[in-house]
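Quick illustration for those who missed Monday's session on complexes.
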Amino acid sequence: MFSKILIANRGEIACRVAATARRLGVRTVAVYSDADANAKHVAACDEAVHIGGSAPKESYLQWERIIAAAQATGAQAIHPGYGFLSENEAFADACAQAGLVFIGPPSSAIEAMGLKAESKRLMEQAGVPLVPGYHGTDQDPALLQREADRIGYPVLIKASAGGGGKGMRAVDKAEDFAAALASCKREAINSFGSDAVLIEKYVQRPRHIEIQVFGDTHGNCVYLFERDCSVQRRHQKVLEEAPAPGMTPALRQQMGEAAVAAAKAVNYVGAGTVEFIVEQPGGYDHPEQMKFYFMEMNTRLQVEHPVTEAITGLDLVEWQLRVASGEPLPLQQHELSMQGHAIEARICAENPDNNFLPATGRLDVYRKPAHVAFERGGVRFDDGVREGDTISPFYDSMVAKLIVHGANRAEALAKLDAALVQTRIVGLATNVQFLRHVVRSGAFASAQLDTALIPREAAVLFKQDKVGLGLAVAAAVAQTLVHEKAGEDADPFSRTDGWRPFGLTQRRFDFEYLGEPLTAKLTYGHDGALQLAVGGVASPLVFGALPVDSGTAVDLRFNGQRQTVQCWQLGESVHLFCDLGATVITELDALAHAGETAAEGGRLTAPMPGKVVSFAVKAGDMVKKGQPLAVMEAMKMEHTIAAPADGTVAELLFAPGDQVAEGAELLKLQAASA
Ligand code: ADP
Ligand code: ADP
Ligand code: MG
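Prediction with adenosine-5'-diphosphate bound:
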């Protein structure tokens, strides 16, 4: 075993690797960028080396500096985590040349699997089933169009060098192909430095089921069963579980053996994942009819590896370290078994109700359920951030991974929902409530899985208000009164326990809830009882304050409901969390809110900090409402900025490649005069 390793990554995966290393007595070296100077992963390691600026290109992708850091600190091996340099064969080679062990497969295996098209040709030879498609080297657009027509629509165009859900376009009909190809190629060249694409039949209602494999340097290779990652948004995983619901032992063995064949075809060593797209010709009720096709192999540890750890009882990072230091695999195929059911939810800084737009900001409040971290347990919470940390635009938007393990799927679902209730984040938008809606949806609960589950179930997943106006207002009023009572000694005029300053018997509150202004009236009875009128409901309001370490918690009764509500006030906004859900209500200060949200005509601003990829227009162009004007890239996603109205482009204020701040004006648009 190594005595010291360098972890060439950040965030939760760097902390994850550090935890196992520490348990095994292996010392760790962190690397960090400017933005990460005080990051959790730096504290999690024994030593840390600064490697440059905040943008990945200036730090986490600077492999000469990373290798120099390993040499300077005496590390014997480098763990690349996932993303960044993990699937970069040149980096793996450079490690070897510098006398360092790359904790991953041989560079030849990374190279062979690195290009989706070439790996498919290789898998075809190895007898692994493939999706019907075109993966040739000839990239003539006319030929690609003919191939798509031959395969039959819908088809999927994929960047050959792509990954992370980027560079993919589904095309429904022949007329749309050329435009989709152009946009796919643009994203591909920008993100992966190559615009080669492949075309595949778009499998209808497929599931994504992948097999975890492990090889060693002694010629052994095993599969650690499957993970179902069908619940996706934008082709990116949201929930992952193991085992796959409905999986039969026979199909598991077939898929496992196909995955091992795929790994052996490239002399695989270490942790890898073979991803399959699975057709369900018999529908959800006949999983035994599922047909699987090779999609790609990820030659690294996967984000969702903890669900496999949960059901197998193994530590995959420990296996990685053992294999990289030359030991044989700790177990053989017949010694592996599964127990119970595990589900992982990716908690991301994003706004599900606004097309999953990534969010940035400070984790002002960041509370987690009772949990273990970076090790197996009933509720596991792996993250690389702490309360007060900032989610910056430089890296991806994943805040944490919540992994539950139960005796069966129903138990795991219940644990996951309960743990999500206890996950309370204030300061930036997250998908926590959205995840709850998915977990509680009939489709997910009954395992009617396919990659379109989210769009299919949109009606019960998006724009859900489970708390409701009445309870939200009651909670906000109660927390204001608790607050005032706490300040009573300092300010006798704000007493609220039945006596009002200046003999008030009624009090008016102005709020904004879900974008709508509203007024609530609180009436004080002679006996000190409170009556709250809001939204056409008048009901007694009864509450008691509960002791909490920060914020305010009230045990609340209003309009036939009883809930314990945890409240945090930030500025004018009160963030509410209860068993029903979470919401935000804003107290309107009569003076502060006049006209501040009026639309600014002609201003087109960056919705988030990021990089300008391209402008689709130039000064002087006439544009129509909804026409794409510019493309921005932030947090590994492309966002198109469209014209809010008809008009003429007056001026472009940035150039492609420029980094822009949130709210920066990108271009000037002269609205067509009415
Ligand atoms: P998984 O490991 O579950 O397949 P993802 O596909 O989302 O997870 O990728 C893992 C991480 O690596 C994510 O943070 C993703 O943004 C990043 N990533 C994946 N592929 C690439 C790539 N080719 N280039 C840069 N980042 C990538
Ligand atoms: P990435 O490298 O970004 O992970 P993949 O090729 O692994 O890309 O595909 C990611 C997701 O895209 C899959 O999980 C699935 O949802 C969808 N997908 C990929 N190929 C197909 C296909 N042929 N038909 C339908 N959906 C597909
Ligand atoms: Mg994939």
